[in-house]
Structures are given as C-alpha cells and as structure tokens.
Amino acid sequence: MKKKNIFILIVLLAILMINTKVSAATCSNSEKQALVVEAQNVVVNTELRKVTPGEGISEKSYFYSLIISNTSDKLYYEIGINRYDSKDADKNGDIILKDFFSGGGTQAKVSIYGNSNSACNNVLIRTVALKLPYFNYYSEREECKGLENYPICKKESNTADVTEEQFLQHIADAKAKEEEKNRHEETKEESTFEKMMSYVKENLVIVVGISIVIIVIVIVIIVLVLKKRKNKVKIDLGDK
Q1: Which residue in 71, 86, 105, 216 has the most C-beta neighbors within 10 A?
Q2: Could you give the CA distance from residue 195 to residue 184 in angstroms, rounded to a whole number?
Q3: pTM of the prediction?
Q4: How far from 21 is each of 25, 33, 123, CA to CA, in Å?
C-alpha cells in the first residue's frame, strides 16, 4: 500500500514538472514581457481593521485585509498555499481577502504567475512583498495627545506586551520629559535676555555714546531736509 502511494506521488510530481517545463518552453520573451507589463499594473495593498473586544478577542487585536487591484484574466495570484484569479475579483476587478493576516510585523508575499489563458502558464512573472506594520492601540488613548512623538504613542509601535501599568508609567515619563524640555526652553529665553541686559550694564558708556551719536545724526538729517525745503520755497516765491 505504501509502495502504491509513493508511486502515485512520483507520477503526480513528474506530471507537474513536465507541465511546468512545457509552459516555460512555450513562453517566449515577447509573451512574457507582455505579461510583465500587465503584472506591473497590479496593485497590492493592505487595509487595517481594528476589532471590537469580545469573547476570545483582545482589545489589542487587529487584522489586515489584502486587496489585489487591477487584476488580469491572464494572471493568477499565489499567497502561501492559496491561489486566486480574476474569478475571485469583485465587480471593480479587486480581489479582497478580508482579515487575511492577524497582527503586524510579518511580511505579506504575493507571487504573480501567468495562467492557462496565456502562453506562460505557471511561469512566475512578478513577486510583491509588503511588510505589515504594527498597530499600537494605545496611540488612540486620550493620554497620548501631545505625546505623539514618543514611542509609546506612535501608531506603528509594537506594544502587544505592554501592560496598562507599563503604559501609564511610559506616559508619566514622557510628560516629565516634556516638562523638562519646556523648562529648558524658558531658561534659555531668560538666559538670552539676561545676557543682553548684562552686556548693556557692563558697556553702559559705549551704549549711551552710540545712542547719542545716532540721535545727533538723525537730528542733523532732519534739520538739513527742513532747511532744503525752506530754501526751495523761498526760491519759488522769488520767481513769482
């Protein structure tokens, strides 16, 4: 019985190999290039879906749906052991695999092959790999407002193992850093003003002297301008 099963397995593998070789042999460069163009138009995206906590579902749980757009009737799409083609597409030509991936940090890989409608059946045309980002459900908490630049509040931080107590401690630490930064900025502004006033005090004679010179120059300019206008008026009256 075992020998029979092994024989059947060998026959199936041989048929598969022959079929692949025949497909590769009949797939010319021009035909493959035409499929490459179609495969390049295929768009693979992921869509995050947060879930409502319930029985067996954590409040931190989330899923990614996989969306394959601009599908072609000459291609099929392989994800792991699953295979999809244009027959699985909706009226918009999109193949939507809802909640296909659970959580983040993994890679979604879509292999695009020519199908039996093309001369390149089972020939790999293109591979698309997407890294699924983490989703930090803490990022939507009220405590994170104004602290978005801190890791604990960034949307794509991996906080799956962070407990509520740890989260609150991270928030307290982040707020302490913000307060310290604000104090530093205020001290810096005060320090700049104090340095300026100190310079004025230390160089009071020079500052007063420069101020007097500027005032005198301004007065002289005003006097010359007024005098010039007065002379011009006299000349005009003499002409009349």
Answers
A1: 71
A2: 16
A3: 0.61
A4: 6, 18, 9
**pLDDT tens figures, 33-81:** 999 999 999 999 999 988 766 555 676 788 899 999 999 999 999 998 9
Q: Tell me the pLDDT tens digit for each residue of 96-128.
A: 998 888 888 888 899 999 999 999 999 999 999
How many angstroms separate the most distant Cα atoms in the chain?
Answer: 135
- Parallel, antiparallel, or unpaired: how do β-strands 95-102 and 107-114 relate? unpaired
Residue-wise pLDDT for 81-93, tens only, equals 999 999 999 999 9
